[in-house]
C-alpha cells in the first residue's frame, strides 16, 4: 500500500471521483462542463457515436494537467474521516490512500431497481456510454436474429419488441430515437421486418411527469403517431408477462453501494445528508476542540439497498434536526440531498453546486472564509426532451411555474443547440455536428463491433 502526502487545494478537491460535479468544483480555476450523458439516447441507435460525446476528464478540467494537481483513475473504496484519508484501489488492484484537508464527494447515483427481482440481470440500464453501446449491440443482435430461417413467429415477435420501463425524459428520448431509427433506417433495409418492430413504454404514472400537462399530451400524441405503444402499469411479480428482445430500464435513480457504505448520515432514500451549505452531516459527537466528527460508524439512514426507502426524503425531517456538519467534508450532485429540500438528480443541480463549492472553498483557501458562507440556492433553468424525429418539448424557468413551455420543431432546434454548445470541447462539438450531418445525409447504420 502506498500513502500519498497531504496535498494542496485542487488535489484535496479531486480526491473522490471524476464525474460532472467534481470537474466543476475546480471550474473557477478553469473548466468546461460535459453534458455527454444527456446524449445517451442518441448514441443507442447511432444518431451520435459514443466516442463523439465521451470527453476525457483532463480535457474537461485542464488544471488537472498542471504538475501540482493530480487525477487518479481509481475507485474510492472507503473514507476514514478520523484520519482524513480516502482509501482507493486502481483497476489492477493497487491500493493507496490520499490524504485530504477538504473532501468533496460527488460519486453520482445508479439506476434504481426498486428491488424487483431480475431487473439487474435481464434489463439494460442507460447511464453511460458503455450502456448505450451495449444497448445498440443488443438491438442489432435482435434485429438480425429475428430474420434467421426457421425462427418461430412468436420468437420473431419477441425479438422485434423493445420495451422501455419508465416514461421520464430518458425513456421518452430513447423511444423517440428508436421509432425514428425504425422508420427512417431499418425500413430501407427490410420493410417487412421494420413494420413488425414494436416499441413499448411502460410507465406507472404520467409520461414526462415533471412537464406541463399540454406538453405531456403533445408527447403522448407524437409518440403514438410514431408507432410507440404506451402502457400505463407497474412492473411487478404477478405472473403477467410481456415478451421482449431488448428491455431498457429507466425508472429513476438510487444510491450506489459506495455511498451507502460511507460513515455519514443518509436520507431515507439513501443519499448523503447535507445541510444548506452542502456539508455532510452526522449526529453530533463533539471533540474537546469543539469540532464535530463522524465517529467511524456508518451513520443513521439506510446502509444496504434493501433498507433504502421509497418514501420521500422530506417526510422524515424531524428525525435529524440535531445532525451537524462533519468537518471539511462536502457532497454535491446526485449522491446527496438536503432532507428538507431534496433537489432532483440533474446535471444543472450538480453544476450549480460545483460552482458554489468552488467559490466557498476558494474563499476559504484565501482566508476570506472566516464568515459563514451563504447557503446554496438552486435556480431551475428549465427542462427539455427530444421526442423523436424533429420534435422536442421544452420548459424554461421554475418547474412548478414554467415561464415558457412549448413543443415542436423550434424546441427541437433549441434542444440540439443547447446540447451542442454545452459539450466539453470544440473538438467534441465538431464530432457531434458531423455525426448529425452524416445521419441526416446517409442515415444510421446497423454495424456491430
Ligand atoms: C441518460 C441520462 C440522461 C440525462 N439527461 C439529463 C438532462 O437532460 N439534464 C440534466 O440536467 N440531467 C440529466 N441527467 C442527469 C445528470 O447526468 C446527472 O444528474 C449528473 O451527471 C450528476 O452529476 P454527478 O457529478 O453527481 O454524478 P455523475 O455525473 O454520475 O458522476 C459520478 C462519477 O463518479 C464516479 N464514481 C462513482 N463511484 C465512485 C467511486 N467509488 N470511486 C471513484 N469514482 C466513482 C462515476 O464513475 C462517475 O464518473 C441525465 C442522466 C442520464 C443517465
UniProtKB/TrEMBL annotation:
- What GO molecular function terms would the record report? NADH dehydrogenase (quinone) (non-electrogenic) activity
What Gene Ontology cellular-component terms does the record carry?
mitochondrial inner membrane
Residue ranges for the region (Disordered) are: 289-320
According to Swiss-Prot or TrEMBL, what is its membrane topology? Peripheral membrane protein
* Keyword ATP-binding on entry: no
Q: What is its EC number?
A: 1.6.5.9
Q: What is its main location?
A: mitochondrion
The answer to keyword Mitochondrion applying to this record is: yes
Pfam families the record matches: NDH2_C (PF22366), Pyr_redox_2 (PF07992)
Domain FAD/NAD(P)-binding, first and last residues per copy: 69-283
| Assigned keywords, A-Z | FAD, Flavoprotein, Membrane, Mitochondrion, Mitochondrion inner membrane, NAD, Oxidoreductase
- UniProt xrefs under InterPro entries: FAD/NAD-bd_sf, FAD/NAD-binding_dom, NDH-2, NDH2-like_C
Q: Where in the cell is it found?
A: Mitochondrion inner membrane
Give the External alternative NADH-ubiquinone oxidoreductase-like C-terminal domain ranges. 380-445
Give me the reactions it catalyses.
Answer: a ubiquinone + NADH + H(+) = a ubiquinol + NAD(+); a quinone + NADH + H(+) = a quinol + NAD(+)
The UniProt family comment states: Belongs to the NADH dehydrogenase family.
Protein name, entry field: NADH:ubiquinone reductase (non-electrogenic)
